[in-house]
Each structure stands twice: as structure tokens, then as C-alpha cells.
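Handout, page 2. Input:
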Amino acid sequence: MEKKLRTSDNFGRSLIIFILIFIVLLIGGWKVFQIITRTPVESFFRDKDSFGILVICKQKISEKESHVTFFSVATIYPKTQRIGFISFLPQTRMKVGEPTLEEKINFTKPVDISEDISNLLNIPIPYYIETDMEGLSKVVDLIEGVPSFMWGPAIVEGEQIPSGEFILNGSMISRFLNPPVKNETKPAIDLYRYYSLIYNIWNNRENKWNLLSSEGVFTIFSKTIETNLTESELFALGKKFGFSEGWHLTSIEIPVKRLENGFIADLDSTALFLKNFKKDLMEHENPFLTRMPRMEIKNGTAISNLAKKIQNSIGRKGIVVIEFSNADQHDYQNSILLDVEGNTYYSYMIAKSLNIERKYALINKSSFTDMTLILGKDYGKIKLQ
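Output:
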């Protein structure tokens, strides 16, 4: 009897050891499987290495030539969960006597341009994404439009764009991104319209990613762009950014000087701009906490002096109110927060602090403010205490 018990105990211990070994092998096998199936782009996030993606949008002029409407590098910093768009005016020459960036893009492979820009920014740019107006229009329709906002001061004369809150669909993309401006401010306005589109997609990214990642839709999307990222890498990036609230966007433009009919990069100013910008992207503590956001308050109601009445209450929340005035009209039903500077940290934190549900990006970096608050008839919902 005793021998049988010892045999039973030995069998039990052997079974437990076998189960433990099986679990260890199972976990180890899963880890190996994850490493084997990990896409190359995911290694940047695993190792916390910063990298860039060249982003180009074109508008076809002829079979052989295109007009470059957007040229930017999305610099991604996994350690701090920040993305910085560093943008170039396509008409820019990096040096006197060189072709413009637009000319280089039309007659050079994106990977060759990436190498030049990588040396300037001192960050690897292994990937590129290129599309055109038609492709961008298809993408916007695939994600069922982009919630947007336009108002009087931002609408160009002769432009057929809705005023107020609206859904930007694919049929409007070309008009929205190519406003009828015929003066030297056009390159900046064009760039700010692209920023506004990018930021408004970002503000709704979870819902938009759910639409884009559904069966069949992502395959259609991948065919609207030209890229050296594989479909699985694109999917991995979308999943990475689609559900994480920790990531924030900001942007900067390479400073230029006038040169005949185009521009030349101001390399001395560029070095200083990039140094400060990269510091903001790389610091672990959020750098935007050291400078309180600046806000302009607009009264969009018929109540006299409403903007002035609440400025002190908003100021007590650490927001610097630098101006208050009337909005373009006085029948706004809802209060609206506009991101003017292009800093999703500010827009996210302020909207949360003030309990404002409606927030949009309407970028205008010639403004002296970071945010514009338009007071609507629901202003009583704003959290002032």
C-alpha cells in the first residue's frame, strides 16, 4: 500500500513538472512567434528608436509631371509617444543652384530624397508614403468623411466651402486643399489646410481606424498610395496609433527666404528651429507644461460681453487669454474649441478641462494664439470652476 502511495506521489510530481515545462515552452514558443512575425517597422517601437516617414501628396498636371502640394516628414518618437511633422514648402531649394524639392520629387525616387532630408534632420527616414488628390479623396470617403469646421475668417474669397461644422468628404478634398489664393501667402495656406485635415483625422482616429481596418477596406486603402511599407507594416502603424491616447502631434515648418519665384531654405534658422523642436519631442516630461497655452475667446451668442465675462474664470485654469471679441456670427448653438497652432496636447487637455465636446483643428500659424474658443448658446456647460 505504501509503495502504491509513493508511486502515486511520484506520478503527481512528474505531472506537475511536465505541465510547468509545457507552459514554459508554450510561452517561449509564443515569444519566438511574436519575434518572427514582427514587422520591421515594429522594431523601432520595440527598441524605442526614433525614425521618420516621408509623406508626399501630388496633383497631376500631365502624364509625366505633377504639382507637389504637400511635402513633410512625420518624425516618430516612441520613447515619448510624440509625432512631429516637419514640413517643407515644395518650391524650396536647399541650396542655390539646386532643383526645387518639387523638381526632385518629380524626377527622383523618394528613397533618394529621403537620404538628403535624413542628413538635414539627423534622423533615419527609411519609409515613404506618396499619394495624389484622387487617392486622398478615396481615403477620406473610405473613412466616411472627416469632421471639420470652417468659419468666415478662414474661408477664402470665392471659395465654395461650407461654413460652420460639416463633414469633409472626398468630393471636397481638392477644393479644400487647393484654395483659390493668388498671392505669396498661398503656400502657407495650402500647408495649413493639410495640417487641418491631418489633425482632424487624428482627433477622430479611433473611429476612423475601426472603419479603415475592417475586412477588405484596408486592402482598398493600401492601393490608393505608393509606399515601401508592406501592407502588414501599414496595418501595424495604424493599430499602434489608432487606439493610444498617449500619442500627441505637433508640427513645424522649415524656415525659408525668398529666391526669385521660389524659396531657399534658411539653414541657420533651420538648425535652431530643429534643435528646439527635437528637444520638445524627446523630453520625457511634457515640454508644453512649461508654457501655458494662449487663447482667444470669441462670443458666438447674442449675449453682450459674454467673452469678457468668462475670461477671468478661464484664466484661473492656467490658460492665458490674450484677446476676446465677437465671433463672425451670433447664432452658434454649440461652443467650439479650435486648435490654431497644431498641438494636440493643448487641444486635448483644454477640451477636457473645460468640458468642451466639439473641438477641431483649423491651423493658422500666423496667429498669436494656440487656441480659439467660440462661445455658443450652450456656454453654460463649460466647466469654469
